[in-house]
Design a protein that fits this description.
Mean pLDDT: 78
Number of strands: 10
Order of helices and strands: HEHEEHHHHEEEEEHEHE
Strand content: 15-25%
Number of helices: 8
Number of domains: 1
Structural class: alpha/beta
Radius of gyration: 20 Å
Shape: globular
Helix content: 10-25%
């Protein structure tokens, strides 16, 4: 969407989808700057005031062949990491070997990961040292996907395929090396139902004019050009669940935490910082007999993000981690304190605990 607020022509959107499916290289990049902050969101409250980082497009009308899910909901909470002097007392993890790898997370854990008094700082060779993520799995291996069963309009085979494509979306949006370097997430966008006008508008604005009401980081992980991934591994922990939704759709919820270790792109420093992103994304695999959709695509119902050490300021669509000296100079962010590795509480509880503050404080990274 341009500055005047006009929607994208259908021909342009279809061209974009074709290019996404083909994996067209040379995706445009936005200029770097400090990235994002918090928004307010309480689904249970009637008609809440519009949050600083809340996306609420108008509800789609009910009608023949249309599926109305109500306002699409998206929120984010930014956490600024504590200064190194305080962080070192919170680092977790096992010994030099990282301990025994954790089993997959098939259900919500009952408590946060343990912490240690002795800090084990990360290095380029061991970028996850000193954090619970050292025992997490790599990439999609850390995302638990349940067994498929016939649900709603889908038989067991279709459900299995929907779960597989959901994991493909999570990989394309949060793990793809090109997207992490700042490219547009073409493969991920190609999996989203192109007939969702509100989502089309949101995505166009988020990449062309990122801001408080449209930030691609709610759905996609893109690193500021001033940093690069330390190594080639992103640690993950999370799970996928599903149930029958409206009009027989298969509603899939993905709750996943990603840990990105980074170093300065310019080189000359071995200091490793970590950015931690937890996202909860709810997708609807709709019955094409009842909803206008395209084969192999889903509708977005809601998306929420909680980001630690990814920047707290004017959103520009990039994760901008702070390193030790920068965190110390910046001082505490205020707001509630959150352990970004704690998956024992739901995203709703975490966001509600923020009390609507623009930025919170991460107890460790």
């Amino acid at each position: 969407m341009g500055k005047g607020g006009a929607s994208i022509p259908d021909e342009e959107w279809e061209r974009f989808l074709r290019e996404a499916e083909a994996g067209t290289p040379g995706a445009p990049e936005e200029p770097s700057a400090r990235a994002r902050t918090v928004a307010r969101r309480l689904r249970e409250e009637p008609a809440p005031p519009r949050g600083w980082r809340t996306h609420e497009p108008a509800p789609r009308r009910r009608g023949k062949g249309r599926y109305v899910v109500g306002p699409l909901l998206a929120v984010a909470l930014l956490l600024v990491a504590l200064a190194p002097g305080r962080v070192v007392d919170w680092f977790g993890g096992g010994g030099e070997g990282g301990g025994t790898p954790l089993a997959a997370e098939s259900e919500r854990p009952g408590e946060a990961p343990a912490t240690e008094a002795a800090a084990r700082l990360p290095t380029p060779e061991r970028p996850f040292r000193g954090s619970p993520a050292e025992r997490w799995a790599d990439g999609t291996a850390g995302i638990h996907v349940p067994a498929a069963r016939a649900t709603g309009w889908m038989d067991e085979e279709r459900v299995a395929r929907a779960l597989e494509r959901t994991r493909d979306f999570l990989a394309a949006s949060g793990l793809d090396p090109g997207v992490l370097r700042g490219e547009r997430p073409q493969k991920a966008i190609a999996l989203i139902n192109p007939h969702q006008a509100d989502v089309r508008k949101y995505l166009a604005t988020a990449f062309d004019e990122p801001g408080r009401d449209a930030d691609p980081l709610l759905l996609f992980s893109r690193l500021d050009p001033s940093v690069r991934l330390a190594g080639d591994v992103v640690k993950t922990r999370g799970r996928v669940s599903y149930r029958e939704g409206e009009r027989g759709a298969v509603e899939v919820t993905a709750d996943v935490t990603y840990v990105y270790p980074v170093v300065r792109a310019a080189g000359g420093s071995d200091e490793v910082a970590r950015t931690i992103v937890r996202r909860e994304t709810v997708l609807s695999w709709d019955d094409p007999a009842k909803v206008i959709t395209e084969p192999g695509t889903f509708s977005l119902l809601s998306y929420k993000a909680d980001i630690a050490n990814g920047g707290c300021g004017t959103p520009t669509g990039y994760l901008t981690p702070a390193f030790g000296a920068e965190r110390a100079a910046g001082g505490p962010a205020g707001g509630s304190e959150v352990d970004p590795y704690d998956r024992s509480t739901s995203m709703d509880q975490r966001l509600e605990a923020s009390g609507g503050a623009d930025c919170g404080t991460a107890t460790r990274t």
